[in-house]
Amino acid sequence: MNVRELACQSLFTVCQDKGYSNIIVSQTLQKYKLVDRDRRFYTELVYGTLRHLNYLDWIITAVSTRKIIKLDPICLVILRMGLYQIFCLTKVPESAACNESVKLATRFGNKGMAKFVNGILRNGIRRRMEFNIPTLEENTILHLSLTYHQQQWLIKKWIADYGTEETVALCRYFETIPRLCIRANTTKISRDELLHNLQQRDMDAEIAPYAPEGIYLNTIPSIHDIPELQQGLAFIQDESSMLVAHVLDPKPNEVIFDVCAAPGGKTTHIASLAGDTSIVYGCDIYDHKLQLIEKNAQHLGLSNVRVLLQDAATIGEIYADRADRVLVDAPCSGLGVLKRKLDLRWRKKPMDLKRLPELQLTMLESASKCVKPGGILVYSTCTMNDDENVHVVEAFLKRHPEFKPEKASDYCSIYKEGSYIQLLPQIDNLDGFFIARLRRGE
Length: 442
Ligand SMILES: C[S@@+](CC[C@H](N)C(=O)[O-])C[C@H]1O[C@@H](n2cnc3c(N)ncnc32)[C@H](O)[C@@H]1O
Prior knowledge:
Layout: H1 3-15, H2 21-31, H3 36-51, H4 53-63, H5 73-88, H6 94-108, H7 111-126, H8 140-147, H9 152-162, H10 164-175, E1 180-184, H11 191-200, E2 205-207, E3 214-217, H12 227-230, E4 234-236, H13 239-248, E5 255-258, H14 265-274, E6 279-284, H15 287-299, E7 305-309, H16 315-318, E8 323-329, H17 342-347, H18 350-368, E9 371-381, H19 390-399, E10 403-406, E11 421-423, H20 425-428, E12 433-440
Parallel strand pairs: 5-6, 5-8, 6-7, 8-9
Antiparallel strand pairs: 1-3, 1-4, 2-3, 9-12, 10-12, 11-12
Helix pairs in contact: 1-2, 1-3, 1-5, 3-5, 4-5, 5-6, 5-7, 6-7, 9-10, 13-14, 18-19
The structure holds S-adenosylmethionine.
Active site: 382 (nucleophile)
EC number: 2.1.1.176
Domain SAM-dependent MTase RsmB/NOP-type: 170-441
């Protein structure tokens, strides 16, 4: 298979919602031993097409007489990839992009599809001047959506929530290349020692400003350049996410429940802060995900982690008053981490934001029953959607006056007014995250 065929297949899988682009790309690169140049072109085609998806669809909508949703999915992938080469790459001649796309349509489709693809691409080239992105003044939403590769409904929501200037800053944050952030496994090595070891090997590493175990790597290394990851001395985790365990503030000799725990980033962090006289139960509703928690705990040498197959929405009926501390790191819309998840940007639907708060409140209510009198309940998400954050917590507090909020930022070094921490990428230069800390009365 040639490079374009591989890219076409990978994009087809991602666009059919059958996998994450980073996993598919790395599996493909492992299976097919491509030479460096082909490897780069393959990666560029897959990630570039995905990043520019809404711009490419904007062109297809204008040029095609058939509606996008009526197009054969493989035909749509071939068109997107062809237009990406024509409109966004400078080094591929237009004729090559067209001819190669026609070949793909013949290979994966039929003669009719090949003719259609040829027509659309040549039409696109003829009408090229029509596809300059409108300016911010001409059409704010379309401009931001096409320039920063975000869905229009999200841009509208952000403008309503933060205004245009902050929305631009937010979109810019999501366009920056994510730095790798690692957490020192402080049960085995201090952050200073880990940092020293990395810098000794000429790695451009610096400490994370807010998470006491966090280290950023400014140049993106291959994972294999960091043997400390394989040795269990460090764990890949975003800085925002590291703050959650500190807000929970686990202590020795405690029983702690992490009720939405897989793959165990926070469970293992909590376990290392609590020490081995505590027991941390990492619960999840998916059996196969529990294995990830176990594997991560074992790899980091943590003997105080146990896993539990358990639905967070019913956990309180079984384990009432059992835990000193409970973390609900709820499934959420993930709007705070759009920098990392390119394909997730296009999968988000307004409906997701509507259906989640009810589920989150159910989980929080059930998990709260596990908290012993005087114990701590922490609720966190990786989103900046108030309906999933402050509104869920306030609805919970209204029904449960036995819980009172405590100032979350007293437990970590990022200061926020009010009780809760809402990290905003455009203000805090961190992934969007929400953390609330509640205490049950005695
Ligand atoms: C935001 S992720 C958790 C990330 C994790 N805390 C970490 O730091 O690695 C949410 C998790 O909730 C799990 N989940 C979804 N619905 C659940 C339910 N009803 N009960 C328990 N876990 C659930 C998902 O499988 C997913 O692993």
